[in-house]
Every structure is written in C-alpha cells, then in structure tokens.
Write a structure and sequence with these properties.
Elements (H helix, E strand, L loop, with lengths): L1 E6 L3 H16 L3 E2 L8 E6 L4 H12 L2 H7 L2 E6 H6 L2 H5 L5 E3 L7 H9 L6 E2 L21 E5 L1 E2 L10 H5 L3 E2 L2 H13 L4 E5 L7 E2 L2 E2 H8 L7 E5 L8 H9 L6 E3 L7 H7 L5 H14 L4 E8 L6 H14 L3 E6 L7 H5 L6 H24 L5 E9 L7 E5 L4 E5 L7 E9 L4 E5 L3
Parallel strand pairs: 1-2, 1-3, 3-4, 4-5, 5-6, 7-10, 10-13, 14-15, 15-16, 19-21
Antiparallel strand pairs: 8-9, 11-12, 17-18, 17-20, 18-19, 20-21
Helix pairs in contact: 9-10, 13-15
Length: 434
C-alpha cells in the first residue's frame, strides 16, 4: 500500500513520524508525495496551539472528494489525537484512525484491519511509568542529521502547556540504549546527533545526567557534531556549559525558551525563574562557552498581559541578543491550569499587534548578531542543496547560523566558508580557498 505522511509541530512529532515511516517501510509500504497518490493519508497534528490544529483539520477536510471517490484511509496521530480522542470522529467524520504518541507501533496493524473491513479503532497513550516503546525506531536513517529522543513526556507544570497531558510525565531513557542508537546511526553515516526532549537538560537516569551522556557519546566514532534541544532554563547548569565548552564537536547553541520577560507573567506561567535569573543563566553560558548562540520562545497576549509586561519581554530580547526566537500568540488550551484559572482577556487584534512588534524586534536583533559574522571564515556542516537558491549549498555553523554558499561540496562534508553578506535569517558566502 502507498501512504502519505504529513507532519506539523515540534521535533517530537517529527521523530514520531520518522519512527512510523520506518515501521511502514519495513512492512513493504511505499511512501507517496501526495494524498492523491496514496491509499492512506496520515497526519501528525500539534496540540500546543489551536492555529496549528485547525490547519491540520483543514488539510484533512480537503480530502473529502478523494475519500468519496476511492475510500482513502485517513489517520490523525500525535498529541491532538491523544487529547481529544473520540470527539474527533464527530468533528472530522472523514477520520478512520486516531493514535496517540505511544501507539505508533500499532498503526500498521490497525490500518490493515481497516482495509479488511474492521470498524474504526481508537488507539491512545495509556498512563505508563516504565515503558520505552515511544523510543523505538528502525535504523534506516541515512540523512546527515538525526534526532535521538532521550526523554519522553514532561514533568513540569507550566500553566499554559498541554504537553504533559498529551505525552505523560517524563520518562528518561537508559543511557546504554541511547548510546546504542547513536552507534547504529553512526554506522549509517549520520554526521550530526541531536538529543531531544521536552526538557532535555533535565535528563537524569539515576545519577547519569545529560552532561555525562554527551561525554560518553563523544567516544563514538563517526558523528562530527552533537547537540540537544529543548531546555527549560531551570534545568541547565554550569556543569553542562563546561562540558559543551570542553569539546568542539558539541554545538555552541542553546535553545532556551523564556516565554516572557515579565516576572508577573512568568509567575502566572509557573516557569520557576525570574527575568533577572534568566539573564544570569544566559550570561553564565556565554561566559563559559565561546561563540555560544541562544534562541528562545515567547508567548504574547498571555492572560492579563499589559503593555508594561510586553515591553519587559521586548527588552529581554534586546538584552539577551537571541539568534532567533519563535514567537506565538497565546491560545487557550484545554486541561491546562491557565485555561481553568485565567480568562483569555487580551483582544486578538492586540495579540497580533504585539506579535508583529516582537517579531520586528527579534529581526533587528538577529541582523545585529549576523553582522558580526561578516568577513569571518566559519566551519559549516553541509546539509545539501538550498531549496531557494538551487545553484548553492546550505549548511549550519557550530552555533546554528544558517549559511548559504557557493561550492562543490556534498551533504555531510565539513567546509570552511567566508561570509560576505547577511540577512536576519542567514549568512552568505563562499568556500574558503585552501
């Protein structure tokens, strides 16, 4: 059978899709580029923001005519399926299958049962305390970069976040399993390993933490770069920064979502740090790790957010000089503390206005960070041909700057590129002579 797979949302969804893709290929299924060419269409939806959910729902609705014409099977997978469960069959009558993040290995059997006339099944993530099913993958990855999940779920209780309800509390993966997967990926030629988790820096298996995992991973031959995302600011520490600084194969990049620059809003969000403490964390990290770049996330229009709160957030972006930030308008999510306690009282036009202003602030800051690269020669891991500039290559530096450049290198090569122009999003240059 032919299947179409569409993914939206975070790295977790992307890795889940990769795992399922491997399972289906092992069973002899053939990937399709479009639902028009497929017997089955599977959608991974993100539940963190309503807009992301609505977009996927729209894509599913657009398959009405294909469904009517030849009975394509349609599945909705991931956090949205886990949270909304059976109600989605009423909301989206085209659906044949729902599967939460912990049920991916059951999807192929469920699809085959549907093909044989079974009634619509419902698969969802059970409460679990010691299951590592969500970590399993087929070692068919042959790309340059690969995500390796080291923790599933999240044990923090940020008031706006629905992830703990969708993926459960954090379960740390045994380090020997993580390192075995890294070895398998290395044998397949993967050059960059990125450890991922909802709060990856909180990883601790007994007394074995992320810093130790990085040190042990560095002993594996093959990969030229190791990184990790995403980290809660309260989980990073001096020891982790010192390990990053100790070996040039570890990426000089930290994704450290702040969410707000207002202490009042941070308290309502249950983030467990102040804006001053956040600044101190970034300052310490940059002091210990040369060339470190930091990215962040922000939510505008959180309940009761005032102009003063917003201005404090804008100042945090300017003070910390983030390489980039993901900026979102607050949307109330079911089952969250914020939804129960706070009225979503910031008008939509005001949310949009603040979103635009914050994006402009970040764009200005990003350009300033990029301008420091002009004239410098930087080490770049080549990812392949640039999609926009077909005649050029694209890659990333060890501190996560996107670089577009002229050259004859191939994906997976490490090259030196001299930067001659920049935009807020990317640097441009040519491979250095010699």
């Amino acid at each position: 059978m032919r299947y179409y797979l569409e993914v939206s949302g975070c790295q977790m969804n992307k890795l889940d899709a990769e795992i399922l893709d491997g399972i289906l290929k092992e069973r002899g299924w053939i990937p399709a580029k479009s639902p028009k060419d497929a017997d089955t269409a599977l959608f991974f939806a993100c539940s963190v923001r309503k807009h992301a959910e609505d977009k996927v729902f729209s894509h599913i609705g657009a398959l009405k005519h294909i469904k009517k014409k030849r009975g394509i099977l349609i599945g909705l997978l991931g956090c949205t399926a886990q949270l909304q469960k059976k109600s989605l069959f009423e909301k989206l009558p085209l659906l044949d299958l729902l599967a939460g993040p912990g049920a991916l290995s059951s999807v192929p059997d469920a699809l085959e049962s549907l093909r044989n006339g079974a009634e619509k099944p419902l698969l969802f993530l059970e409460k679990r305390s010691s299951s590592y099913d969500s970590f399993r993958r087929c070692h068919t990855v042959t790309g340059i970069s690969a995500f390796v999940r080291i923790v599933a779920g999240c044990s923090r209780v940020c008031s706006y976040c629905v992830v703990p309800h969708a993926r459960g509390r954090a379960i740390e993966r045994p380090p020997n399993e993580v390192l075995s997967e890294v070895e398998a990926l290395a044998r397949n030629g993967v050059k960059e390993i990125i450890f991922i988790g909802q709060d990856v820096a909180a990883y601790r298996y007994n007394d074995y933490d992320l810093a130790r995992l990085l040190k042990d991973a560095l002993k594996i031959k093959g990969p030229v770069r190791f990184g990790f995302v995403t980290s809660h600011p309260a989980s990073v520490n001096r020891n982790l920064f010192e390990v990053i600084a100790s070996d040039e194969r570890i990426s000089r990049f930290l994704h450290l979502p702040a969410q707000s620059g207002s202490d009042r809003i941070l308290m309502m969000m249950r983030r467990n740090y102040t804006a001053k403490q956040y600044r101190e964390i970034v300052e310490l990290a940059r002091k210990i790790v040369p060339e470190l770049e930091v990215a962040s996330d922000f939510i505008v229009g959180f309940p009761t957010e005032t102009e003063k709160d917003f201005e404090e957030t804008r100042c945090l972006i300017e003070d910390c000089e983030f390489i980039n930030s993901f900026i979102f308008k607050y949307s109330e999510r079911p089952m969250t503390i914020a939804a129960r306690r706070y009225k979503d009282d910031v008008p939509k036009p005001e949310k949009q206005h603040r979103n635009v202003l914050l994006l402009k602030t970040q764009e200005r800051v990003s350009l300033l960070r990029k301008q420091r690269l002009l004239g410098r020669t930087l080490k770049v891991l080549v990812e392949g041909q640039d999609k926009k500039y077909k005649e050029r290559l694209i890659g990333r530096t060890w501190n996560n700057h996107i670089v577009v450049f002229d050259g004859e290198s191939k994906a997976g090569d490490t090259v030196s590129v001299t930067i001659n122009s920049v935009t807020p999003l990317a640097a441009f240059g040519s491979v250095a002579n010699g």
